[in-house]
Write a structure and sequence with these properties.
Elements: H1 7-11, E1 20-23, H2 27-38, E2 43-46, H3 50-57, H4 68-78, E3 81-84, H5 87-93, E4 96-99, H6 115-127, E5 132-136, H7 144-155, E6 162-166, H8 176-181, E7 186-189, H9 193-202, H10 204-208, E8 213-216, H11 218-249, H12 253-261, H13 282-295, H14 304-326, E9 335-339, H15 354-364, E10 368-372, H16 377-383, E11 388-389, H17 393-397, E12 402-405, H18 410-414, H19 417-423, E13 428-431, H20 438-443, E14 447-450, H21 459-468
Parallel strand pairs: 1-2, 1-4, 2-3, 4-5, 5-6, 7-8, 9-10, 9-12, 10-11, 12-13, 13-14
Bound molecules: uridine-5'-diphosphate-glucuronic acid.
């Protein structure tokens, strides 16, 4: 189904249309493979997981990502995208190989576990027979690309003809397709003009549209990614630290965030208070960055990241305090409806999810927890099989003593407080994501609590004052 490379282009595959392989077809890799094929490239997705490859080949995305399923079906029909477990075939096929395998947190430390990345580069290098570019997309500690370059040069039968570049990815789960097709910037970490030209060919459709491009050395490209994620995490923890101060003073963190957001230098994005950040990226990137900085002797420069992490974790404990208070001071035997398990809405990802962690903490204190997430129940059940899971919002809240809103799915925001009120045992709710209409709940007779908000509603007073102004 794919075109064949002519001998000339095999010698120097700088083509208008480089052929692309994507190693590791998880959230990042599958989206990248599908989107590159949608842009007109011939793409081969590779993974060691036979089942994942089978599912993707038959047109099924093995995780929840809005819009990806449709795009996959669309590009499979063009014949430009295929999936395989055959690495030799991938090496023969590709001019540019994107490495998108995971870099999870190590089991015994804060460092990133680079086993999968190292394996992927080594496997490609040892099989290479013609010039090609290996492009790392996985988030890695600074200095990894330089180390891998040395390894690749040694392992590759064609030596330095196999080049390495780093091209960090900034897509958000839930918006992965759009972020990949319309990135806000591109970053190329390259060691040669040839590598840059290859990447320019791959991203030509975006560059033609005027997408900003930063060309940098390998270390800077690696650093951009962890610096960006650490900054985002810092912003979230900043507003959550303010929520802690609000709790001690009776101030309202939502009004505070709103007021801050009008300052263009601060901005309102990533200033949403609540249960804080989770997922497969922000928490582990923050920790791996601090760990790497310490190794490099600049630990003090980013020592504040430990505090950012701590602020984030403290929110979960504080949330449990609020639920316990509403349950009358003791969670034993209290039925708690845990609304949400995913680390954020529009995702079924439960990696380091604040929601699921809180559900677990509540259960550990003796609460009878019933979890409902519109998409993540299955993944959550796999992680914590001991919790109870409901098939619907109504089922989850039925007879609940306290309702805990943990992930801000639209379905929860749209729910009618009166209808929910008719199902619960007691109208008590804690909004961990500042996603609900507090006044509507209070008017419907609910006791309503949120992190960083005063116990008594002051919203009416403020709005009256606003009206006068
Ligand atoms: C994050 C970055 O936003 C992406 O740019 C990056 O590419 C990605 O990590 C990655 O490294 O691959 P993602 O993990 O999909 O993306 O999720 P975010 O939308 O950043 O949300 C992270 C967490 O922060 C979620 O748990 C969310 O609920 C929380 N959050 C976000 C807040 O608590 N408050 C906010 O104001 C914003």
């Amino acid at each position: 189904m794919f075109t064949t490379r002519s001998p000339e282009t095999e010698l120097d595959p700088i083509a208008e249309h480089p052929r692309i392989t994507v190693l590791g077809v998880g959230y990042l890799g599958a989206t990248h493979a599908v989107c590159m094929a949608a842009l007109g490239f011939e793409v081969l997705g590779v993974d060691v997981d036979q089942q994942k490859i089978q599912e993707l080949s038959s047109g099924r995305v093995p995780f929840f990502e809005p819009g990806l399923q449709e795009k996959l079906s669309e590009v499979l029909r063009t014949g430009r995208l295929a999936f395989t477990t055959d690495l030799d075939a991938a090496v023969r096929f590709g001019d540019v190989h994107f490495i998108c395998v995971g870099t999870p947190q190590s089991i015994d430390s804060d460092a990133a576990d680079l086993t999968f990345v190292e394996r992927a580069f080594e496997a490609l290098a040892s099989r290479a027979r013609r010039k090609a570019l290996l492009v790392g997309k996985s988030t890695v500690p600074i200095g990894t690309a330089e180390r891998l370059t040395a390894m690749v040069n040694t392992r590759s039968p064609i030596g330095e003809a196999l080049e390495l570049a780093w091209n960090p990815e900034f897509l958000r789960e839930g918006f992965a397709v759009d972020d990949t097709l319309h990135p806000d910037r591109l970053v190329f970490g390259v060691a040669s003009g040839w590598a840059e030209r290859q990447l320019r060919a791959v991203y030509a459709p975006m560059l033609r549209r005027g997408t900003p491009l930063v060309v940098a050395d390998l270390a800077t490209a690696e650093l951009v990614k962890v610096a960006a994620n650490s900054f985002l995490a810092t912003k979230i923890s900043y507003i959550n630290a303010m929520a802690e101060v609000c709790e001690a003073t009776g101030a309202d963190v939502d009004r505070l965030a709103e007021a801050l957001s009008h300052d263009e230098r601060i901005g309102g994005k990533f200033l949403k208070p609540g249960l804080g950040f989770g997922g497969g990226c922000l928490p582990k990137d923050l920790r791996a960055f601090a760990h790497r900085a310490e190794e490099l002797g600049v630990g003090r420069a980013v020592a504040f990241l430990h505090e950012i992490d701590d602020i984030n974790t403290r929110r979960r404990f504080r949330f449990v305090d609020l639920v316990r208070d509403l349950a009358g001071g003791d969670l034993h035997g209290a039925r708690v409806a845990a609304l949400g398990a995913a680390f954020k809405p529009n995702s079924d990802d439960v990696r380091d999810a604040p929601a699921l962690d809180v559900a677990r903490m509540l259960a550990l204190e003796g609460a009878d927890v019933v979890v409902y997430d519109p998409e993540a129940n299955e993944n959550a059940h796999r992680t914590y099989p001991d919790l109870d899971y409901a098939g619907s919002l109504a089922e989850a809240v039925t007879k609940a003593d306290v309702v805990a809103l943990l992930t801000e799915w639209d379905e929860f925001g749209r729910a009618d407080p009166n209808e929910l009120g008719a199902l619960v045992n007691a109208r008590r709710i804690v909004d961990g994501r500042h996603a609900l209409d507090a006044d509507a709940y209070r008017e419907a007779g609910w006791i309503f609590r949120a992190l960083g908000q005063p116990t008594e509603p002051v919203g009416m007073i403020t709005r009256e004052a606003q009206a006068v102004n």
